[in-house]
Design goal:
By secondary structure, the protein is α/β, with parallel strands linked by helices. The protein has twelve helices and ten strands.
Length: 330
Amino acid sequence: MPSRPLLAISFAAALGAALVAPPQPAFAQAAWPSQPVKVVVPTGPGSSLDLIVRLMNDKLAARWGQPVVVENKPGAGGMLGVDIAAKATDGHTIAIGFNGPLAYAPFLYAKTPYDPAKDLKPIVMTTSQANVLAVNAEKVPARTFAEFVAWAKAQDGKMNYSSLGQGSSAHLTMELMLAELGVKAVHVPFNGSPPAAMAVAQGTADATWMVAPALLPHVQSGKVRLLAISAGAKPDSLKELPSMAEAGYPKVEALAWNGLVGPASLPDAAVARINADVNELLKNDTSLREAMARSGLTIVGGSAAEFARFIQADVARWGPVITKLGVKLN
């Protein structure tokens, strides 16, 4: 007689098996991970995404009994690294994605190497944080956002700004602000936040919007000045900055968010294991929480389904904005 699919086994047979079988440890049947786990970071070393993964990799390796290998693969606005995970077939390769490659790419590019909605499986959201507006402290005399607006308008299109990549939250936050101000500026994209922040610190870029971690060393050295934050929810380390709503521009609201994703083929048991262990760290690991707080990162966590819904909501919000701004990338 042909064997029947597991889902076709009768409830009575399944119940009987459960009653006589000895207790099994959680995830024992999945036996995941059975080899080293690769986490692709689609930005360079020292970026906020890199920081998040490296704060967790040793702790996850200890839980899983397998090495967790971090691979930085910046490029193409984050799509290069995320594409590695989208096409992985070993069941042990995931990536940390963010707004650009997970939600904005289909609106920005005529063609993408993967379909975020079909080729990727959300696992867990890690952090979500506002971008901050930073300027070179020597070239830009502004000490308030109002003064920055006056200065930017006086540049007559000669202002330039850095971002951590084409189509990133940093890029689109700046474009949204410029549209609201009626100001033109030149975009200078980089592969990741560290070089984009360094460009502002060195004065090769006048300004940037990005999350705080890569900027803070330059703020402490006096080379960079922070002027505003792109959301009303502020970490304690950035409480003194006015939100864009407080500065009179409520439409300029944006969050940079990130989370772990895998290929659509990633087994549900692996998704459940990663989600549970990452949530445990984010909720209960004091050293990790403190390190993230010092870097201005707001911990999120939650279920895989919640992360999927969040991505869908951001697509619905930013798709029309990107179309209205007319931002198109090659």
